[in-house]
Amino acid sequence: MAKRQQTKKNVVLAYSGGLDTSVILPWLKETYGYDVIAFAAELGQGDELEGIKQKAMASGAIKCVVKDLRREFVEQYLWPMLKSGAVYENGYLLGTSIARPLIAKHQVEVAHAEKAGAVAHGATGKGNDQVRFEVTFMALDPALEIIAPWKDPNFKLTSREAAVEYAEQHNIPIDQSKKKIYSRDRNLWHISHEGADLEEPANEPKDDLYVMSQPVSKAPDKPDYVTIGFHEGIPVKLDGKLTSGVKMIETLNEIGGKHAVGQADVVENRLVGMKSRGVYETPGGTILMTAHSGLESLTLERETMHYKQQVALKYAELVYYGLWFSPLREALDAFIDVTQRNVSGDVTVKLFKGRCTVAGMKSPNSLYQVDLASFKMGAEYDQTDAKGFIRLFALPVKVAGVVNRKSAKGAK
What is the per-residue pLDDT across 141-187, written as a single tens digit (0 to 9) for each? Predict the structure, then answer.
């Protein structure tokens, strides 16, 4: 393999301990002689970071920095996204997308602290993550060199099978096998599954695919109910008790996972131009999104609610495209925060056989007035007002209808 002649320098690698970054770390050292500083973010991925420092050092890193970012992830990333209502292409709750800018931000900070001149990531040249990492790097420190091995002509580990073989040759411990190779990304909000048999859209996801939840066929025959208390759009109480964001999501993941809530099989349009298929598990996030949406239906007036639905689509694109650190996202957050001033109250959600539905809700700011909504006519609503309103509302289409009838007669 050809090697570039250059002065040795430090590079900070976004390191998960998964297959891709496990082989990229020694490859950077072996191929170009870099001193690699591994950076790992604790985002609630379970036991995946167990022993990660030892693994990184054994793989050739000169240092491994691990940061617990769970609270920041929830409060500064997940809650703003929850308030926005962002969902990408009707099914993806953006679990991987929303985490990448946070990881890249701290990666830049580690590079500054370690006086490293470069940052690196293990995202493939076909995926969205390469964009999310590199856009964030450029937004936060354009002077840093960006190293992306998958786009390097010397990088030959361009299949997961080849990466497994390389890891075995270099005695790098991995949790993958050639027989069953899914590309997975997990954090507090979700876990994604891609690759292997899922690359064929005709294949139904297998029951043993799921990690955070169980198949619908194994869900209990009796429902569970949970009540989420919101303050200005942010979930603050679980079943009446003040609960931290991290603990709330962890608890809802457990309850929702038991009932197979939050499973989504999505064929989506990647930013780089191709379609891809992913199976996502977002049990706690689905519960929170359902509850928040329900409470907004109770507390937002019509024009704000309808416009916010349009904003949610754009917000989802910004998150999916990796444009978290952009002026537009900051501006949209300002708008969204105003819409959330009255989004306070309690929502009870029913979990049963993969379904998550609002069972009841109440708010001191509710715009739902029983007297107005009732079919019973009363003094609070004069139905004769509707007569003139409808005539004025229909005037444009009425005029168009008259003109169209005249044109049709003239054409005969």
Answer: 999 999 999 999 999 888 778 888 898 888 887 765 444 568 889 99
**405 is an active site residue:** no
CATH number assigned to the domain covering 10-73+98-181: 3.40.50.620
DSSP annotation of 114 reads: T
What is the distance in angstroms between the CA of the first residue and the CA of the last residue of the chain?
Answer: 80
Confirm if 236 and 243 have CB atoms less than 8 A apart: yes
Question: The tokens 């020694």 sit on which residue?
Answer: 26
Active site residue 224: no
Predicted TM-score (pTM) of the model is 0.92
Q: What number of helices (H) and strands (E) belong to the chain?
A: 14, 14
Catalytic residue, chosen from 70, 100, 132, 160, is 100
Active site residue 207: no
Domain 185-362: what homologous superfamily? Answer: Argininosuccinate synthetase, chain A, domain 2 (3.90.1260.10)
Residue 109 neighbours by CB under 8 Å, 6+ apart: none
Q: How do 224-231 and 345-352 pair as beta strands?
A: antiparallel
Give pLDDT tens digits for 288-304.
999 999 999 999 999 99
Residue ranges per structural domain of the chain: 10-73+98-181, 185-362, 376-405
> Can you list the positions of beta strands (E) in 170-281?
183-186, 191-194, 224-231, 234-238, 241-242, 263-269, 275-281
Of the candidates 94, 84, 85, the residue with the CA atom closest to the CA atom of residue 337: 84
